[in-house]
Amino acid sequence: MGGLRELAAPFVALGPCGVAIRDRLKHLTSQDENVLRLVGEHQGALASRDLRARCADGLEHSKETWASRKRDLTAQSSSRIAGAITKATHDQWALARRCQAAHIRNLEAGIGTLRHRLSLPIGAPGTKRAAGGYRSKGEWFHKSRRLAALEARHDAAVRDRQAGRVRVVRGGRRLLNTRHHLTQARLTEEQWRERWEAERWFIAADGESGKRFGNETIRVTPDGEVSIKLPAPLAHLANTRHGRYTLTSTAAFAHRGQEWADRITANRSVAYRIHLDTDRCRWYLTASWQRPAVRTIPLATARARGMIGVDTNADHFAAYQLDQHGNPVGDPHRFPYDLSGSAGHRDAQIRHALTRLINWAKQAGVAAIGIEDLDFTTEKTREKHGRRKRFRQLISGIPTGKLKARLVSMAAEQGLSIVAVDPAYTSMWGAQHWQKPLATPKRKMSRHDAAGIAIGRRALGHPIRRRAAPPPHDRRDRAGHRTAQARPGTRGRDGTRPPATDHAPRDVQPNGTRKREPSASNTVRDAPSTHRWVLDSLMHTG
Fold first, then answer.
1. 199: which of 120, 171, 293, 468 fits an S-S bond (Cβ 3.0–4.6 Å)?
2. What angle is formed at CA 73 by the lines to CA 70 and CA 77, rounded to 5 degrees?
3. pLDDT band at 374 (very low <50, low <70, confident <90, very high)
4. Residue 345, CB half-sphere, CA atoms under 13 Å: how many?
5. Helix 79-119 and helix 63-74: axis angle, to 10°?
């Protein structure tokens, strides 16, 4: 095993910690839409100013500055709206900091690869683990220039992080860049402007336990009546008491409706968000709440009824069912999906494939699904794979983060656990030990199917190899014990196997004893060691 990296132990992934459901607000009047637009624009402007102030504070942020910003916002809205805006601002700033750290790690990975390749002689061959030298002096020169550019970017990013500077765009940087490519996006300037303003609106409120129906700012009754607490400058638009505006549309959550109704009836906190889908010209209401931390089942319990190993690929899931001993059961299953097109299309494809996978797991009767703990952070750099653009696009297109989050949440609703395993060598060892033995004229085994078996066996705690290597034919003890054997202390692990009851010879009892003593041997090899053999002199002839 020399040269192989140490494998991480399998673990049961934590369950979901939150729930979000959505319903469309139908039959809104023009007055309702006008009020929602005015509220969104007003509170969106407040959120933009608060985010600017938070970014200016940087690492100097404290409770006093937070309280000061909240007091300034309360005068122009309300205390609850101000609290929701400041909390959203802090979440957005923290997300920008995490993205900044990921960008620095990506730059460090590219710089390390470039420095290694530039240190090698031109034309030096590479290995399986590291690339070789560059092929020509011209390529070496251009890569040295790129190294200088990456180092400059890295130094600037590190300085920004140390100073607490982040760059955040309310509405999204991708949508901002679309403004310069309206022809490719098939949008007019008016359409882009409408989408940009809608993304920057802020009509959201955090829930409060103990308050009426779990939220005082955006209140939804069990009958579905939706009312909004208007900010102070827009209080004249209220159509009910206490400065509230009640919409003509009602909300009825079809998914998890009973769970939502139980929460608001008990006055438990529920957060709401109202947004406009500019493509469809539809208004939506999203309700979300947190769940208490749920303890995951022990790993031994997850392994009790076998496992389904899943290999994640660019266009499908390759899954194989294994029993508790690690033996493949039945035929491989493949669940295809298409990750081209818009983000909504890709998300729907992933959900559909995961739904089919979970339904099959329920029918198989297993308690857990084994999947690789993938992370392509260091694999997406251009310096890692050079001119292999299609491979870089392939690994960049696999939504590992969203995939793991969706699989964990969807599996938890069906009572299934997710066992994450180290992805090292699963494809290589699976193809080596399982692809050919399981291939038959009626069963086509791919490398991905074999990788699913390897992942499942690793999740079950078994080695990927099919069986132990036999000892040398000349001497049993020369190479020691087998590579995979019974654990020390297992009773009878070194003994001989007793004969079976139904297949034992006639002179052998079921308990392994013979009826009569064996007859005397007539061969030289079986003679007693005390017997002396004398050579007859008559056998020597002259």
1. 171
2. 130
3. confident
4. 6
5. 130
Tokens of 384: 């890692």
Structure tokens at 67: 């309280």
With beta carbons less than 8 A apart as the criterion, state whether 385 and 435 touch.
no
Average pLDDT value for the chain: 83
Backbone dihedral angles phi then psi of residue 433, each to the nearest 5 degrees: -105, -15
- The number of residues making up the chain comes to 542
In DSSP notation, 344-411 reads HHHHHHHHHHHHHHHHHHHHHT-SEEEEE----TTTS-HHHHTT-HHHHHHHHHS-HHHHHHHHHHHH
Strands in 264-344 per DSSP E: 271-277, 282-290, 307-312, 316-322, 328-336
Residue 313 pLDDT level (bands cut at 50, 70, 90): confident
**What's the token pair of residue 414?**
């069906």
Q: 484 and 467 in contact (C-beta within 8 Å)?
A: yes
Q: Where are the beta strands (DSSP E) in 400-463?
A: 417-421
531/521 Cα distance (integer angstroms)? 13
Please name the amino acid found at residue 383. E
Q: How confident is the model at residue 366 (pLDDT cuts 50, 70, 90)?
A: very high
Model confidence band, residue 15 (pLDDT cutoffs 50, 70, 90): confident
Residue 531 scores a pLDDT above 50: no
CA separation, residue 381 to residues 138, 139, 174 (Å): 21, 17, 20
Return the number of other C-beta atoms located less than 10 Å from residue 427's C-beta. Answer: 19
Nearest CA to 40 out of 274, 281, 282, 246 is that of 274
CB contact at 8 A, 452 and 309:
yes
Distance of alpha carbon 266 from alpha carbon 485, whole angstroms: 57
Structure confidence at residue 493 as a pLDDT band (50, 70, 90): very low
pLDDT at 399: 63
Of 132-141, 291-300, 422-431, 498-507, which gets the smallest average pLDDT? Answer: 498-507
Q: pTM to 2 decimals?
A: 0.72
Chain centroid, CA 47 distance in Å: 31
Phi and psi based region of residue 277 (left: phi greater than 0; alpha: psi -120 to 50; beta: remaining) = beta
Q: What is the mean pLDDT of residues 116-141?
A: 87
Are 432 and 395 in contact by the 8 Å Cβ rule? The answer is no
> What is the pLDDT, as a whole number, of residue 115?
93
Express as a percent the part of the chain with pLDDT over 70. 80
d(CA 73, CA 59): 21
Look up residue 164 and give its amino acid: G
Distance CA 92, CA 200 (A): 13
Do residues 216 and 229 touch, judged by C-beta distance below 8 A?
yes
d(CA 310, CA 216): 45
Between 405 and 424, the higher pLDDT residue:
424
Q: Rounded to an integer, what distance in angstroms lies between the CA atom of residue 13 and that of residue 94?
A: 24
Q: Cα–Cα distances in Å, from 482 out to 241, 325, 471, 473, 478?
A: 81, 18, 7, 13, 11
Q: What is the pLDDT of residue 536?
A: 43
